[in-house]
Amino acid sequence: MYGVYNYSFLDIKSLIENSKNIWEKCDSKLPELNYEKFSLSKKKENENQFYYFINAFFDKLENHLKQGNKMIEEEMKVWVEENISKSFVFDSDESSMFEGNNFFDISKKFINRCTTYDDTLSFENIGQALRNVWIMNILQHAFNLEVECTDAIYGYSMLYPYTDNLMDNPDLSKNEKIEYSKRLSKRLKGEKILPFNEDEKKIFDMVENIERQFDRDLFPEVYESVLSIHNAQIDSLAQQSGDMVPYEKNMIEISFNKGGTSVLADGYLVKGNLSEEEEKFCFNYGVLLQLGDDLQDCFTDKNNFHSTIFSQLYGKHKYDNLTAKLINFILETFNENFNFDTPNNKTIKKAMERNCIMLVLGAALISKKCFSREFIKKIDVYFPVRSKFVLKIKKVLKQKMERLKKYETQAIDK
User: Fold this and answer.
1) Is 191 exposed, middle or buried (CB count within 10 Å of its CB: 0-12, 13-18, 19+)?
2) Which end of the chain is more exposed for a tag (fewer CB within 10 A), N or C?
3) Is residue 243 part of a domain?
């Protein structure tokens, strides 16, 4: 039996302060972006290409789920690798990150492992976990590690849907959820406690997957990093207080803590140990992804009374300066923190940076009313499709996912 640890290896406060210092120094003016610019005709061409890509992809995926034989599976894998570079979603640098790095096989094996363990998981739950697997795979690529889905990656990624489902369970009272958070904290510290119910058993099983790969005595930072994101998520519940006075809580610090610790845990779970430089990069990478999500969800957060630095300004001030500051923060993070001795360092850096910038630009373009016309005009030329296409394709993807729901209980062949 493992001992119970009171961790003190990670200086989360210093990492938050480092991120805040970078944030405060970032200009609130939109920088010149060194990316391709898209004319209206090129945007329409990209849209047509993506329609072809997504329709063909889902047709092949549904055919595979219907028949489930190796020939179709291999055909689909080859097709994706051949066509991914033709989609506007990825430029040539980003496509190179996927080609030859087993992303297709990893995704397939992860989905199979999920459905084998728990055939009640929905596509949405698996998709939520898979997105985290991809982030960890990208970090493996950045750190020049073998790109694979380890026990730790599987376990940690599955904690997301399982903990969310438990916290969203209407049959559990607020006090029961608080007690659950305390029990999970104890389990993450190494205490062997019996699960309270079946939902908690699944969560504890995922912690065991992490323990299977990382010995607590040899890799204490791994467990402290996971405990840190758990604590940050508890702290972030303050953002969901509907009666909270604006700026009553330090939204910057809460958001930085939640986002930063999430990817910090990703980093430790893919590598076991991180250098100071790697810690700073992972933390800041998590911060910028969190802020990008907050911008994307500003309207939903406002309606649900969830406070973020974006939702608190909704309908009161334009987002121009805040979003420009976020873009500068992204550029600064990759310029200052991404200095790893990795083959193709510049290519990986450029691909990751562009992906983050496009996330922010896309979120801004679909929330035009939160920005000035001048700001939207400046960023629109860098985005490969029209904003109305982004909204339309979301509906199309949702419809296609609905069609696949009848295959939810069917595991993908090993």
Assistant:
1) middle
2) N
3) yes
Instruction: Count the domains in the chain.
Output: 1
The string of pLDDT tens digits covering residues 29-85 is 999 999 999 999 999 999 998 888 888 877 877 777 676 554 445 555 555 555 544
Give residue-wise pLDDT tens across range 151-162. 999 999 999 888
Please report whether residue 48 resides in a domain. no
Give pTM, 2 decimals.
Answer: 0.85
Domain that holds residue 141: 12-30+90-383
Q: How far apart are CA 358 and CA 59, in angstroms?
A: 27
Which residue type does 331 have?
Answer: L
| C-alpha pair distances (Å), 164 with each of 106, 129, 181, 273, 320 | 24, 11, 12, 28, 32
Distance CA 316, CA 250 (A): 19
**With the CA atoms of 287, 288, 292 and 295 taken in that order, what torsion angle do they form, in degrees rounded to the nearest 10?**
70
Q: Is 151 left (phi over 0), alpha (psi -120 to 50) or beta?
A: alpha
How many C-beta atoms surround the C-beta of residue 217 within 10 A? 9
Residue 120 in any domain: the answer is: yes
Residue 244 one-letter amino acid: M
- Asked whether residue 392 is domain-assigned, the answer is no
**Looking at residue 145, which CATH number applies to its domain?**
1.10.600
Cα(352)–Cα(338) distance, integer angstroms:
10
Give residue 117's pLDDT.
Answer: 94
Task: Report d(CA 234, CA 344) in Å as an integer.
Answer: 38
| pLDDT tens track for 181-226 | 889 999 999 998 998 888 889 999 999 999 999 999 999 999 999 9
Which residue type sits at 168?
D
